[in-house]
Design a protein that fits this description.
alpha/beta, five-stranded parallel β-sheet, single chain, globular, 13 helices
Length: 358
């Protein structure tokens, strides 16, 4: 019961299939141009959509966003920017990707980038039900709505060109395991771990195929990071002396292998389509095992820390144990990396992203 309680609280954040994309300074030698960056996924990439729905899973308060421009808590699960922001800036679009449900933005803003992601969601609809967040199928419905608005704004021909040449990003999957499968019995009664992995990969395949038929042609999909090494999992791994949970890491590796195989198949099946696996498992695992090599001092605990479980409303600006300098920490809260971690991993991955979409 204690485990369930802890992880339900942890759901006030989930999603570390994350730090996957790219960060770099704008480079005049980069001749790859994208008219827009379009994002689907979970809290690893949510830029504030959960602010506008009825869920406890929010981060629109400090200390979230304290290192964001103006120190603003935007609803991003980070002390600063999330990967799509960095990617958008790296490919010379704009420095932030706005949330689709944020009323302060209009189709004029969304024409060059939009985020449909929702913290706490997953491939599995049952995952989004846990904390009443936006399911993946609904993200796709929002995208269809967005397409109509874009065509009205730009005209059909120009809008279709934007949609086909845009860079699409997907990041999710961690919640399906840590918020759903390993916590509640519903899926375990019907699926072994391996079967559940297949179930999720099949959902991903169907979703991506629908995106393709709606006009997407350039897509980067993030797999899972070493989820057994998240501060939350270390905290509850009492009998393992608070080390990484190897079982969860093995699941992440197996899932990533299946996901990548599926993506390779889609490249063969769908004419004119290019989808890549933004697999960050190895670089994140290396950061966790050799933090000092990357300039970090703390990996076992998060910056927002009492040494137990901190995320969403449990991450308090008033807690005296919350760190002063997030750049010394690999993780911002018990589930999410700091902005610095996102930066390092993104720099590692950007060459593949740019070379794949030449």
């Amino acid at each position: 019961m204690e485990r369930i309680y802890i992880v339900l609280l942890s759901s006030l954040l989930l999603a570390t299939s994350r730090f996957v994309f790219v960060v770099c300074n704008n480079d005049n030698d980069n001749n790859i141009k994208f008219p827009a960056v379009i994002v689907f996924g979970d809290s690893s990439v949510d830029s504030g959509n959960n602010n506008k729905i009825s869920t406890v899973l929010k981060s629109n308060f400090r200390p979230y966003g304290r290192d964001f421009e103006g120190g603003r808590p935007t609803g991003r699960f980070s002390n600063g920017r999330v990967p799509p922001d960095f990617i958008s800036e790296a490919v010379s679009v704009k420095p932030y990707v706005p949330a689709y449900l944020d009323p302060s933005y209009s189709i004029k803003d969304f024409a060059t980038g939009v985020c449909f992601a929702s913290a706490g969601t997953g491939y599995d609809n049952a995952t989004s039900d846990v904390l009443n967040v936006i399911p993946l199928w609904k993200e796709l419905e929002y995208y269809k709505e967005y397409q109509g608005k874009l065509r009205n704004y730009l005209g059909v021909e120009k809008a279709n060109k934007v949609l086909s040449e845009a860079l699409y990003l997907m990041s999710l999957g961690t919640n399906d395991f840590l918020e759903n499968y390993f916590i509640f019995p519903r899926r375990r009664l019907h699926f072994s771990v391996s079967q559940y992995e297949d179930f999720l990969v099949d959902i991903a395949r169907n979703f991506i195929t629908q995106l393709y038929h709606l006009g997407a042609r350039k897509l980067s999909v993030t797999g899972l990071v070493p989820m057994g090494c998240l501060p939350l999992e270390r905290t509850v791994n009492i009998f393992g002396h608070h080390d990484c949970d190897d079982k969860y890491n093995e699941v992440a590796l197996e899932f990533n292998h299946k996901l990548e195989a599926m993506l390779n198949g889609l490249n063969e099946e769908l004419p004119g389509f290019k989808v890549i696996s933004a697999n960050a498992y190895d670089i994140v695992f290396d950061i966790i095992n050799r933090p000092s090599s990357y300039g970090f001092e703390v990996v076992e605990k998060a910056c927002c820390s009492t040494g137990t479980v901190e995320m969403s409303y449990l991450c308090s600006d008033k807690n005296p144990l919350t760190c002063k300098d997030a750049d010394k920490y690999v993780f911002w809260d018990a589930f999410h990396p700091t902005e610095k971690t996102n930066h390092i991993v993104s720099q590692f991955l950007i060459p593949k992203l740019l070379s794949s979409f030449h």
